[in-house]
């Protein structure tokens, strides 16, 4: 899951207009567009092929935009895996999640939903993972919390963190099979009938709220630095987002000239972290920050992990089972299932938002089923590779689509390849582990707050003037905070006599998103209320809209490499939920690119697009 979802993308970027941005059939009907519509019109739609250099430049931007969410997950997991003082292994985890995110992105764009949407780590699996690692049997030994006692190369320490990682891997792999089943069987439509905004809102909000301890612990290492980081991110993302910055640009027509881009709107988190990181470095070399470990503010220094970059290998190929053979526990699997269900429901909303902003028709059911199934396959791969997390659709790149006016999926293909390349170079992951913990804490303060607010934003579909809905949401939220907090403080309270059942209840009842989501689901489906009052009508209109089997839809969502044309002669295809129905498609005609993309004739010089990623 990405921190910001559909509503955020539309709110934060003033680029949405009614209808699609550009028609897939270029028949001259757009000649009467108003000046404002022409300004908002996409330069490249989902099936277009921009120049190769533009694909690379914009692909880099998409990677940078998603960095905040991708990097945050291994840094948080390292606390539960007893890796706080093993920066080299943290770098390996970051490299692995880069690599797997790139592979899953290519799978999704090529065989999944086929929209320009990036894949990356998900916060919905983070909460149940941390709940699982907080169980008494997985609690980190006291000596692993002391940096002076940790020998990162000792077999004892390696077994401590790898045993926890293997248990997490097995749970994620088994839980992801459920998502694969739901996606490729078409059951996602059945789930959407019973899960509405009053279930999703507390579930997502509690993801952010349950991580307050991690944010506070990191930020508390130096509140001055963390406050500065938070202030910079807020300054860039909210106050300066509409202020353009001039950058030099070159084109064949205008030669060398300056163009204005909204750099603060594109990369606020990355700019905030980088600037704070630089200030910490200046404070370190000038001895402003204390040099003694016992002094407050010592962890804000940038030279604490300097040897990690030297120790990290230049090239490291992540492979399945690199931490050993995964193990499976019932408690872990059930906890992961709660996160998987939340991720699936949110991804459906991401698909519709991304389709609208990339000039594509609304995704048909077979494409949504295929997208959810491929996401489940991505979680399976992430578990096998050992990221400690799964994958989901990222919607941060939706903002980049609106800024650059490039909705081509070839750009995301380039981004996926770049993520794979970064995952292969070990020193790139090691660099990110040197970010001071107060800087990370400042980023968490903003990121987790946005996640919580993104969950609450789902209530816009429900009637919040209804006392029924107010009760359901309030009770679900409060229970999701009270019950896990009490279980954490009284871990021995659950004693049924069956060890497996105790572990299952321990994980579920300490996972805030499960507790809140369960009460929201149960109460919303049992307390009498109209569908309009519950928000089901508006919710289904947004998330269950199905496009007709048109030429435009088949151009975008049919399978690549001529697979759809090969299957079109078989009648059994109509009974397979993830395959497109038989329909004429330009994709089935010879001469169409293997990735089902085409280059538009007469496209203008793309220098005006390059200027938006000149930095």
From TrEMBL:
It is found in: Membrane. Its main location: membrane. The chain crosses the membrane at residues 51-77, 97-117, 167-187, 223-240, 261-284, 323-341, 411-433, 439-458, 470-488, 503-523. GO terms for molecular function: transmembrane transporter activity. One of its GO terms (cellular component) is plasma membrane. Keywords: Membrane, Transmembrane, Transmembrane helix, Transport. Residues 586-615 are annotated as: Disordered. It holds the Pfam family Xan_ur_permease. InterPro entries: NCS2, Xan_ur_permease. It is a multi-pass membrane protein. Belongs to the nucleobase:cation symporter-2 (NCS2) (TC 2.A.40) family. This is Solute carrier family 23 member 1.
């Amino acid at each position: 899951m990405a921190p910001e979802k559909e509503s955020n993308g539309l709110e934060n970027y003033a680029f949405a207009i009614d209808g699609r941005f550009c028609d897939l059939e270029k028949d001259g009907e757009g000649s009467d567009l108003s000046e404002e519509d022409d300004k908002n019109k996409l330069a490249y739609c989902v099936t277009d092929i921009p120049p190769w250099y533009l694909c690379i430049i914009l692909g880099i931007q998409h990677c940078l935009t998603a960095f905040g969410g991708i990097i945050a997950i291994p840094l948080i997991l390292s606390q539960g895996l007893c890796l706080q003082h093993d920066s080299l292994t943290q770098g390996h985890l970051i490299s692995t999640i880069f690599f797997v995110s790139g592979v899953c992105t290519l799978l999704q764009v090529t065989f999944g939903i086929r929209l320009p949407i990036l894949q990356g780590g998900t916060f919905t699996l983070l909460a149940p993972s941390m709940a699982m690692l907080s169980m008494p049997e997985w609690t980190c030994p006291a000596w692993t919390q002391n940096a002076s006692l940790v020998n990162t190369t000792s077999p004892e320490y390696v077994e401590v963190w790898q045993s926890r990682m293997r248990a997490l891997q097995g749970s994620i792999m088994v839980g992801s099979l459920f998502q694969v089943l739901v996606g490729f069987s078409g059951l996602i439509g059945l789930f959407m009938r019973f899960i509405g905004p009053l279930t999703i809102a507390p579930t997502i909000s509690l993801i952010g709220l349950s991580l307050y301890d991690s944010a506070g612990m990191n930020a508390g290492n130096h509140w001055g630095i963390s406050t500065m980081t938070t202030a910079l991110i807020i300054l860039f993302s909210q106050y300066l987002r509409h202020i353009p910055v001039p950058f030099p640009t070159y084109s064949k027509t205008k030669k060398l000239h300056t163009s204005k881009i909204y750099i603060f709107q594109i990369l606020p988190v990355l700019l905030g972290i980088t600037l704070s990181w630089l200030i910490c470095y200046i404070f370190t070399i000038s001895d402003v920050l204390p040099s003694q470990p016992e002094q407050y503010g010592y962890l804000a220094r940038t030279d604490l992990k300097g040897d990690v970059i030297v120790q990290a290998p230049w090239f490291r190929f992540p492979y399945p089972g690199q931490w050993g053979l995964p193990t499976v526990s019932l408690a872990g699997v059930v906890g992961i299932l709660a996160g998987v269900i939340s991720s699936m429901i949110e991804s459906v909303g991401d698909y519709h938002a991304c389709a609208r902003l990339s000039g594509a028709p609304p995704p048909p059911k077979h494409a949504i089923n295929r997208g959810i199934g491929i996401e489940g396959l991505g979680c399976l791969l992430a578990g096998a590779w050992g990221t400690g997390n799964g994958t989901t659709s990222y919607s941060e790149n939706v903002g980049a689509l609106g800024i650059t006016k490039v909705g081509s999926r070839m750009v995301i293909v380039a981004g996926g390849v770049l993520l794979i390349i970064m995952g292969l170079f070990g020193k790139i992951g090691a660099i990110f582990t040197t970010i001071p913990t107060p800087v990370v804490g400042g980023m968490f303060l903003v990121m987790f707050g946005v996640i919580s607010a993104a969950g609450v934003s789902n209530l816009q579909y429900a009637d919040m003037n209804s006392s029924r809905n107010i009760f359901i949401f309030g009770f679900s939220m409060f229970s999701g905070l009270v019950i896990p907090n009490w279980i954490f403080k009284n871990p021995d309270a659950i004693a049924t006599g069956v060890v497996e059942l105790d572990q299952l209840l321990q994980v579920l009842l300490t996972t805030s998103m499960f507790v809140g989501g369960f009460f929201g689901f149960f109460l919303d489906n049992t307390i009498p209320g109209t569908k309009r009052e519950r928000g089901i009508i508006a919710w289904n209109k947004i998330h269950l809209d199905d496009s007709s089997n048109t030429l435009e839809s088949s151009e975008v969502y049919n399978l690549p490499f001529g697979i759809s044309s090969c299957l079109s002669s078989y009648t059994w295809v109509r009974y397979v939920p993830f395959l497109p129905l038989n329909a004429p498609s330009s994709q089935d005609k010879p001469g169409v690119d293997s990735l089902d993309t085409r280059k538009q004739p007469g496209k203008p010089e793309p220098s005006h697009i390059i200027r938006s990623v000149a930095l």
